[in-house]
Amino acid sequence: MYIKRNISWGLIIRFAWKNIIFFTLYSASIFSVYHFLGWKFIDIPFQPLSVIGIAVAFYMGFKNSQSYDRFWEGRKIWGGIVNYSRTWANQVLCLVKDDHKTKETLIYRHLAWINALRIQLRQPTSFSIKENSAIEKLFKKHGEQNPACDATTKFVSDEEYNDLLQRKNTATHLVKNQGLHLKKLLEEGKISEFDKQTFHGILEELYNLQGKCERIKNTPFPRQYAYFSTLFTWIFVLLLPFGLLNVFESELHELGDGIQQWFVFFLTPLSVLISWVFITMEKIGSNSEDPFEGRINDVPMTALCKTIEIDLRDMLNEKDLPEKEKAKDNILY
Fold first, then answer.
1. Backbone angle region of 223, left / alpha / beta, with phi > 0 → left and psi within -120 to 50 → alpha
2. How many Å apart are CA 68 and CA 80, to the nearest integer?
3. Which of the residue ranges 193-202, 265-274, 296-305 has the most confident prediction, judged by mean pLDDT?
């Protein structure tokens, strides 16, 4: 999640430089063959092109709206995880009879669960987006997209961790272990049957929250919207210089021959600007399709996990608490 109020131009250029170069060369080439080679037949009326642009804008607006809904749902789910994490720790501390080691085990296993869930959600899928090399290099430097699976090691015993390595869904298995531990505590008389039911209500909600995350992660944004939005946008921006030729020719003709030599200095920048705006709007929607991949616009799961860890360990009255997660190049992961 980008946390600076204004996006830096350095980051914008990382995303846009290839497209800007392409659009500049493309529009300049079209102008050259039109003006210097005399290919006057390649211009097209701008009115049909404007209709295409309006249609693309509406289609793109729908895509961006639905993509943002996926991000916002993901953020609300993790807000629920934060709240239920605190509730879980409070219940453990209040309901489990005097046994600090057991309380620590239950709370630490929960910390293992949130980190295991974060790791699972960060794994790339077959429909994950790929950025240009400058952006991918930035993500690789930050090292948050594919976190190491040993992030849960410090929160569970070696025996339990080795068992988790054999499991297909580590997060699911950790919640199951919590349930088995509660059963053992009931048999030992450290919690009552009513307490056990209270705990299981929280575990059920944790499963619900995990399932909601997995639903977003494992369901790609409908390809008919994602693909054709990109296709229609590129059709529009590739036709744009031909339509601008028609507009500029008629407008500059009225101003006389003296200004027509500056044709390229008017057409090319405007064509590049319009094309960049449309392509950027389209990419904004694409970058919000999966809110868990650790990209610039995604849910900051690492920071949320660290916040939960600080809160829960503070509730255990621990003194050596970790620092809050810091942004890297203004990106909070």
1. alpha
2. 18
3. 193-202
